[in-house]
Amino acid sequence: MEDQDSNPAKEVARDVFPFLRVYKDGTIQRLVATESLPPGLDSETNVVSKDVVIFPETGVSARLYLPNSAVAKKLPLVVYYHGGGFFAASTASREYHSALNRIVAASNVILASVDYRLAPENPIPVPYDDAFAALEWIAGAGGGSEPWLRDHADLDRVYLAGDSCGANMSHHFALKLSGSGRALRIRGVAMIHPYFWGKDPIGAEVGDGFRKAMVDNWWLFVCPSEKGCDDPLINPFVEEGNGSGLQKLGCERVIVVVAGDDILKDRGRLYYEKLVGSGWKGKAEYLETEGKDHVFHIIQPDCEEAKTVFKRLGAFFNDEP
C-alpha cells in the first residue's frame, strides 16, 4: 500500500533518502517523480505519445513516442528504461515525459519507454524480468500488433537506452541477448549515468562517505541479498559477475554518458574503460558533462548541457559519427 501524503504521526521504519520512506504500518511514501503527465501531442517538440498495455496480468506497459511529422519511412527504435533506483518514477512521471519528448525530437526516432513494476512491492529481479519481457514484446511479434511499431519501427535498428538503473538493465540485457539464439538483435546501447556500485569505494566515493552510504542504502533496500553491494546485478566487475564477459556484449555500439559531479561517475568511466579493454569488437563512445549531477538531463531537460546530450544521443541512434 502506498501513501503519498506526509503524516508526521506515523513512525518511519526505513528512510531511503531522498526517494521514499517506509512506515511501520507498511505504507510507502514516495517523495520524488510523483507528478504524472498524460500522453498526447507535445506542442513544444511536436512529438506525439500514447500508452500501450503490454501485459494486462501484471500491468506492464509502455509509453510510445513518435515525431508528429513522421511519414511512412521506418525510424530507429529506441527501447528506454527510466531511472529511479528500481523503486521510483514511471513512464508518466513529469520529468521523464518532458525529457523523452525532447530526446525523440532531437533524434527523429520512435521510442518505447517501459513502465516496469517497482520495488519494494515487487522486489528484484521483478523489475529486470518485466523490462526484458517488454523488450521482447516491443521488438518482437507482440509489437507487430501495435500500429506505431508496425508502421514506423525499423527492427534492424533497435537500440537500448536508459539512465541510472535503466542503464544498468540495458547492460544486462545486451549480455543476455549475446549468443542466446533469440532473433532479437540490438544495434547499440546508450548508458546514461549508469547505476553500478560496489562494496569497496573507488574514485570520489573514497572521500564522500555520506553519498557512499546513501547509494549503499538504495541497493540494500531493493536487493537485500547476502552479496550486498557486490551482487553481480549492481557490480558487474566482481569475479562471479559479468565484467569478465564484456567482450560478449551483444551489440555493435555503446555510448557511456556520465556527469562530472555524479557520485556514480567513476563506475561509469570504469565500465567504459573495461569495455574498451575487454576485446569487444564494437565501437565505444564516452561523454562526460562537467559541473552537472546525476540525471540532470531529466531534471533540467532545457539546459544547454542537456541539449548537448540529446544531440549526441540523436547522432548515436542514427549511426552518425
From TrEMBL:
An example molecular function term from Gene Ontology annotations: hydrolase activity
One matching Pfam family: Abhydrolase_3
InterPro entries with a match to the protein in the record: AB_hydrolase_3 (IPR013094), AB_hydrolase_fold (IPR029058), Carboxylest/Gibb_receptor (IPR050466)
Domain spans labelled Alpha/beta hydrolase fold-3: 78-297
Transmembrane domains' residue ranges: none
SUPFAM superfamilies: alpha/beta-Hydrolases
The organism's taxonomic lineage, starting at the top: Eukaryota, Viridiplantae, Streptophyta, Embryophyta, Tracheophyta
Protein name per UniProt: Alpha/beta hydrolase fold-3 domain-containing protein
Family: Belongs to the 'GDXG' lipolytic enzyme family.
Species this chain originates from: Linum tenue
